[in-house]
Each structure stands twice: as structure tokens, then as C-alpha cells.
Amino acid sequence: MDSHSLRLFLSLADNLHFGRTSREQHVSPSALSRSIKQLEDELGAVLFVRDNRSVRLTREGQQFREYASEVINGWQAIRQTFMQDQLNLHGELSLYCSVTASYSFLYDILSSFRQDYPRIEMKLHTGDPAKAVERVQQGLEDLAIGALPDSLPSGVEFQSITRSELRFIGPQAPQLLNEEQLRNPTSESWKDVPMILSEEGLARTRTDRWLKSHNIKPRIYAQVSGNEAIVSMVSLGFGIGVVPQIVLDNSPLTARIRIYDIQPPLTAYDIGLFALEKRLKDPLIAAFWNRQR
Predict the structure, then answer these.
(1) Residue 83 scores a pLDDT above 70
(2) Of the candidates 98, 148, 100, 165, which has an alpha carbon nearest to the alpha carbon of residue 128?
(3) Are residues 232 and 181 in the same domain?
(4) pLDDT of the residue at 220
């Protein structure tokens, strides 16, 4: 028994006409008949007496009409209360993310959130995604978007939004890696390859792990903060770098970049939302967190 079935019953109880009710409720006469029959089977009682000329409520049908009206009215009341609660939520939330995240998927998230909670104001801060967890832990942000670390700190919750591959990239010109270096990366073949790496973060950790597995001591041309800066320097031919695929998908410099197919590839990572577990009871934070589920 659900609200849809109850609404069909109440409409038929008012009209006492299957054809008119089916038109008003936008269901076929057969679907209406099946719904009423299902109600009668569940209740173990006949609700309508029908013949070729008329439809009328039985005594049980009249009693059930009162019940159905109370249920529908109660449903509408509680729904209105919940909707009003959403509208009454007001305050300010701070959110930290990278520039890439802000124009790749954050627009859709914030648009739908603002529709549901128009009185909650969002303060958006952008920066190096490697600092996402740290800023939440320090209480600088209510929420942050970043990559899931290999080990999530105690007291921090994570909710995945998307997944991204990590890519070795180089400039279209000059060609900084030849076929032999790609097929067989070794300490000798890579000793003169200039690299532009993140100062910190998961991409740097996984790149360092990959280099160590090949006994490569990298020639670091530059260490920078933020993936967008890596793409810019690589596009200018200063070296090769490692960035998430999502950064390349949204970069205006993609045409100046080549992606190297280096095996084995770096491990992809999850990008998602961070918040302190103890703060998920805050109504504003909970509203944003639960909206993404």
C-alpha cells in the first residue's frame, strides 16, 4: 500500500466512475482496476460495489476512505514540514578545492545545492588540493575537495565524487622522452630527463614510489604547488610532469601537451569530499554532505 494507490482510491471514491478517474489521474482503466483490486486483497475487504451502470462505496470502503484521507493529509503535512526545514536552514559554509575542481564538477554540485538550500551561503577558497585534508583538520574549512590519501587520518570522513588517472605528460615539442625511455625506464636512461613535480600530495607520493621502483633518481627541474602550474611549465618545454587526467580534461593547454604511455601506469586516485566526522552533525555541513550521496 503506497500513497499513489491511496490517491487513486480517493479519486475513485469521489468520482464513483472508473473512466473519469483514470483520465484525471492519467492512468489506464486497467491499471486503476488493478490498483483497487490490490488494495482490496491487502485489506481483505471489498471497497466498491460495481455493476454495468454504477460504482458505489461499501461500508468498508467508507471506513477506508476516512483512513486514506488522514494518511494523505498527514503525508502532505510532514512533507511540507521537511521542505520548510530546508528553506529555514541558513548560515555560511566554507569549501576548499583546486581551481580545476571549481570549474569541472563543482558548478553542478553547487547549483543543485543552492536550489535546495537557498539561504546557505558558500565561501569558496581555491588552492593546492594536496592541502585539502590539512585545512579541514585545522578547522580552516568546513569541507574540502581533494584526492583520497593512501591512509585517511583518524576523525576525517571522505565521500567519493569521481576517479581520475595519473598521467605522465610532456610538451608536444621538444620530445623529451624517446621510445626506449618509455619502454625501459632506468636510472641511466632517465638521468638527464628534467622533471616538474608537485611539492607534496598524493601525486608526488605515487610518482616518487614509481621512480624508486625503477631505481631512478630524478633530475628535478622544478617543484611547484598546484597541478595547473605543472601543465603550464610542461607546455613550455621545461620538463615532464605528472598530473591527474581531470586536470588535462579541463586545461586550455591540452593541445600543447602529449601524454606518455608509461608502463606500469601510476595508480589512479579517488577525488572527493572531506569533512571532520564530529562536524557532520552540524545541520549545514550535513545538508551539503548528504546532498552528494
Answers:
(1) no
(2) 98
(3) yes
(4) 94
